[in-house]
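Per-record layout

source: Cellulomonas fimi
name: L-asparaginase II
length: 325
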Amino acid sequence: MTPDVATGAVPLARVVRGALVESVHLGHVVVLAPDGSVRHALGDPDVTVWARSSLKPVQAVAMLRAGLDVDGERLALVCASHNGEDAHLDVVRRLLTGAGLSEADLRNTPDWPLDPDAAWRWRAEGRERASLTQNCSGKHAGMLATCAARGWSTDDYLDPAHPLQRAVRDTVAELTGVDVAHTTVDGCGAPLFSTTLVGLARAFAHVAAATDGPAARVGAAMRSHPWHVAGTGRDATAFGAGVTGLVAKDGADGVYGAALPDGSAVALKVLDGSARPRAAVLAAALAVAGADADVVRPLGVTPVLGHGEPVGAVVPAFGPWAQAA
């Protein structure tokens, strides 16, 4: 039977406009204690999900293990769903040229930059959708650079049978502690491997708590360069910059993974795939995980607008301020 993510889903957040609840976002969330035990769960923590771009830090660990040798902002870009701002594109280009490759070697799906201003400038210059400006180009540049370092072919690096993708699959299974039961194609064209929500949290805990080796390098890069992980105005950058030691990565269709240096970890899946409640739910989950509630609460504020002004908010259905919000 095909796993159904809707089974067991519960309210994670309510959208309040004025004095009324306008809509409700259902889903699943799990919070792990430093010892890996489930501290808190809503819905089904073992639900099978496509972690989408939340899986990028795990993919980056696989690349480092396979021979990629970058750190700092370049490694942060490998983990990123970037806005396509100029500084993001510059780092992607450096990843490629450092491996003796070019933009022409990218095989990710061409798209406009995510950032509206960057997209406007790109189009105003008469340019078309490009693989460079698509938000996963850092990951793809890292994959290509890994292939170059190992002497692997680059034309077929997106084939699930390619040695790079086999290494990624093995690393996903290892760090999540969950066998990969399903494989498909992500929006960018790369192979995508399934896991469970608790498995995703477990993988983030591994990255955040690591003190040496590839996982520690990934954690260090994301902590030191949160802007490169996402960009201007993005909640992944705000949480990464605002919460000391946090490793956090958003994913399409309502997914988030995050962890603190002590190994406390969070993973969530919004059932309808919406990004709207993710920040509010993540903030509440991090508070349950042990982060300072006074720090994370403002990072999760998501106003509901009327005529351009706040007239309500997205309110988490759990956590220390669920009733007070």
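summary: Residues 137-150 form the longest helix (14 residues). Residues 10-64+160-316 form a domain with the Beta-lactamase fold (CATH 3.40.710).
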